[in-house]
Amino acid sequence: MTPGGDPAGAVPAGAVVVAAPAKLNLTLAVLGRRPDGYHELESLVVFAGYGDCLEALPAEGLSLDLEGPFAAALAGEGGDNLVLRAARLLAEAAGVPAAARLLLTKRLPVAAGLGGGSADAAAALRALSRLWGLSLSEEELQGLGAALGADVPVCLYGRPALLRGRGERLEPAPPLPSAWLVLVNPGEALLTATVFRARASANAGAFSAAAAWWRDRPADAAALADRLSGRGNDLQAAARRLSPAIDAVLAALAGTAGCLLGRMTGSGATCFGLYGEPAEAEAAAATLAAAHPGWWVRAAPLLLEGEAA
Fold first, then answer.
1. SS (H, E, C) 153-198
2. Across all residues in the chain, what is the average pLDDT?
3. Domain 174-303: what homologous superfamily?
4. Mean pLDDT, range 113-141, rounded to an integer
5. Residue 244 contacts residue 201 (beta carbons within 8 Å)
6. Continuous segment of H or E residues that includes residue 19
7. 205: confidence class by pLDDT, cuts 50, 70, 90
8. Are 49 and 159 in contact (CB under 8 A)?
9. How many CB atoms lie within 10 A of CB 27?
10. Which of 31, 143, 148 is nearest to 81 (CA)?
């Protein structure tokens, strides 16, 4: 299986293939609005073993083809697609022609709180750096990522992280145990800006430094869920008002055997359940998909250090 969640197929000669895994906020604190208009955030971010996939091939010009179950949602973006913007920005920074044929397999729902567009942009920067033989430093790539969007730097980082600021300040997350996830979206898109506007007030508390609340590595997924239980997602209440279906998703997740924690990720409407064993997660996903055929449901491992990079 590839990190994108599907069996690896034949890769054309000369192609570079990069996974764009789903990003999840295990915790998300909104600490207030910054002078630049962005919100000050602190979040424990992880990646799931399921996501989009980007393939880059040599070409004379720059083009992007879309396929996959959610390709149609991006069809109207044209040249404003984040993947193409990332390609042009990288080419300009490196002083090379923006020449590549890109194929994006869109498996993640759009405007779902999974950082799909940001993951795709990060994958484009990675893939094209390799395709074009560039030697930009991580710091330079991170700078380009920050110019594309607040979530792109952490997607470039590609492993569990403590995220601060508007997303530009990253450090390794405390050690995490093996765990599995069930991702559920009720088929509703939520724009991040809309959710922030709907949020009634800023969070009064602060997300502590890792040492203050992460004393040691949780022994297992149950201990991880217990550690996370006192820290939620500050956007969840506002998102629930905009999309009452989130309540139904969370209740359904809580009703599955083995679910240790249920929570919304990002600005929604996708929620996740945390499980200790793959069989529990896969059984829960099958149960939810059968009971709610209109929902998007996937089981995936929580990717640990280095697995998403």
1. HHHHHCCCEEEEECCCEEEECCCCCCCEEEEEECCCCCCHHHHHHH
2. 90
3. GHMP kinase, C-terminal domain (3.30.70.890)
4. 97
5. no
6. strand 16-33
7. very low
8. no
9. 20
10. 148
Find the length of the chain. Answer: 309
Determine which one of 52, 120, 151, 234 is catalytic.
151
Question: In sequence order, what are the beta bridge partners of 20?
Answer: 52
* Catalytic, out of 6, 23, 106, 120: 23
The dotted CATH code for 16-171 is 3.30.230.10
Predicted pLDDT at 308: 61
Query: Closest by alpha carbon to 92, among 146, 128, 55, 127?
Result: 128
Type of residue found at 308 = A
Q: Which two tokens stand for residue 217?
A: 């590595």
- 106 included as an active-site residue: no
Q: Where do the domains of the chain lie? A: 16-171, 174-303
Beta-carbon contacts of 290 under 8 Å, excluding residues fewer than 6 positions away, are: none
120 tagged catalytic: no
Position 16: which residue type? Answer: V
Distance, in Å, from the CA atom of 122 to the CA atom of 152, rounded to the nearest integer, reads: 6
Partner residues linked to 97 by β-bridges: none
* 175 in Cβ contact with 139 (< 8 Å): no
User: Taking the CA atoms of the chain, what radius of gyration do you get in angstroms?
Assistant: 19
What does the pLDDT look like over 237-295, one tens digit per residue? Answer: 999 999 999 999 999 999 999 999 999 999 999 999 999 999 999 999 999 999 999 99
